[in-house]
Amino acid sequence: MSEDILPTRQPNPGEILLRNKFYENVAGQDELMSKVTGQLLTLELAIPGIYATILKVTRGEEATVQLTPAFYITYGCWLLALALTLYAMIPRNWKVDPTILRQDPAKYAEGLGLEDFFQQTARFKRRLISASSILFFIGIISAGFTI
Known about the structure:
147 residues; mainly alpha
């Protein structure tokens, strides 16, 4: 192997900006997922109320719903979606080694690297939010069969 010194140069301002934006994006993923979770929670609390209001307005004093399988599916899915969303909002304790930027995935039990931490927290929330959204959508579709 050659002992030659490789020429290097300082990064230009554009490269520095791109690097900084990359790290801001990685670090901001968890915050973005938290904002999405908050918006989803708002919807999950509002839609059942709107549904009940529509029933009251369209049916007047006879605003009752038959206890059909569609009714149980609707409220069961909405309840599970709400539970998943609330679980996504609960802070978790992650084992992180601040001296490592990226940990070998086989060694995650020893502790995550800094970049891994931001990616894992965002991935955890994204999975819960995705499942919650699907359940909530199924509940909305099922609500159409209860009227």
